[in-house]
Write a structure and sequence with these properties.
It is built from eight helices and eleven strands. By secondary structure, it is of the alpha/beta class. The protein has a six-stranded parallel sheet with strand order 1-11-10-7-2-3. Bound molecules: the ligand O=C1O[C@H](COP(=O)(O)O)[C@@H](O)[C@H](O)[C@H]1O.
């Protein structure tokens, strides 16, 4: 891992020589969080993004993690989803299933995909309702300090424009506070119809791991670690836990403009 001195310490940025090293470290960090959540609460609530993140989870599907992680107690959610059928090439569920979920023994009833028969608004409301039911069962924790759920881990990617989840720079959705899950029908990145966790839910997470690899992300990584911008102008900068832990995992390419 390369050293960025003060940046490492203050901003929790971990820079790796290549994606292979990044993926190894990511797997170890995820496995440790999983073990402590299952020990404490008997469940690990982990939230996936789509995009390039999924490939970096590959090491978790291999020994030793394949055999040592308590997959039976994982509960898997999506921080955002495109409103398409589950077998559509744009589906974040399909991407995660093909690249990760089909390779590890997580019980299918603990994988919470969106209802792909509904409109964007319907799917967002339905997903939020489902989360509230899981709070009632005790699987999903609520925060002590606000009225949002507190997921154990959010695994986040960042687009080259600085968006995360389906929260795009300066889009009005970045200011939504009254919902846990919101819909968008004018996403600047296709497909236009999506659902997304709102920023307060993201900020309430116990842990957020952001993953960025490749030079295409370098400019935005530098911006995220640059001056503090007004809330929502750069969602990947605003998406920081208010009472949790944030780690950025970057390869040398993504960190090349720091
Ligand atoms: O559209 C999306 O893009 C972001 C970033 O994707 P990447 O391929 O540039 O890493 C992703 O995190 C999000 O889940 C997805 O819906």
């Amino acid at each position: 891992m390369a050293s960025f001195g003060k940046l490492d310490k203050d901003l929790n940025l971990q820079v790796y020589e290549n994606v292979e090293e990044l993926s190894n470290s990511l797997a170890e960090h995820v496995a440790q969080l999983s073990a402590s959540a299952v020990k404490d609460r008997g469940a690990f609530t982990v939230v996936l993004s789509g995009g390039s993140l999924i490939k970096t989870l590959g090491k978790l599907c291999e020994p030793p993690y394949l055999h040592t992680v308590d997959w039976g107690n994982w509960h898997v959610f999506w921080v955002d989803e495109r409103v398409v059928k589950k077998d559509h090439p744009d589906s974040n569920y399909k991407l995660a299933y093909d690249g990760f979920l089909s390779k590890v023994p997580i019980p299918s009833e603990k994988v919470y995909a969106i209802n792909d028969t509904l409109s964007a608004q319907g799917a967002a409301e339905d997903y939020e309702f489902g989360l509230k039911q899981l709070v009632k069962t005790g699987i999903l924790a609520m925060a002590d300090t606000n009225d949002y759920p507190r997921f154990d881990l959010l695994l986040m990617g960042m687009g080259p424009d600085g968006h995360c989840a389906s929260l795009f720079p300066n889009h009005p959705l970045v200011h939504v506070k009254e919902k846990w899950v919101a819909s968008i029908t004018d996403s600047p990145k296709p497909p236009p119809e999506r659902i997304t966790f709102t920023l307060p839910v993201i900020q309430t997470a116990a842990n957020i791991f952001f993953v960025a690899n490749g030079e295409g992300k370098a400019e935005m990584v530098a911006k995220v670690f640059g001056e503090e911008l007004p809330f929502g102008q750069l969602p990947s900068q605003s998406a920081r836990p208010t009472n949790g832990k944030l780690i950025w995992f970057a390869d040398k390419g993504a960190a090349s403009k720091l």
